[in-house]
Design goal:
Elements lengths: L2 E6 L5 E5 L17 E3 L21 H15 L2
């Protein structure tokens, strides 16, 4: 089951809850309020395989093509 983080609108405390995707959040463990707001965070993902610039594994052919385009554009 997924873990969700909620922030209480009453006491401004954050906490995690584990429940199904369609289940509603329970109560704040700090104050007992049901006024909870789900916190959104960017997802994590990894680019796998060869040729991804972000992980430093660009193929050498890409570098040569980019270098040629740069030289052609700047006249160097």
């Amino acid at each position: 089951m997924p873990t969700y983080e909620y922030k209480c609108k009453k006491c401004d405390e954050s906490h995690e809850q584990v429940h199904g995707m369609t289940a509603k959040p329970g109560k704040c463990p700090h104050c007992g309020s049901t006024r909870l707001e789900k916190q959104l965070f960017p997802g994590q993902f990894a680019l796998k395989g060869g040729g991804w610039e972000s992980d430093g594994y660009r193929s050498s052919g890409v570098d040569k093509k980019a270098e040629k385009r740069f030289k052609d554009a700047t006249g160097e």
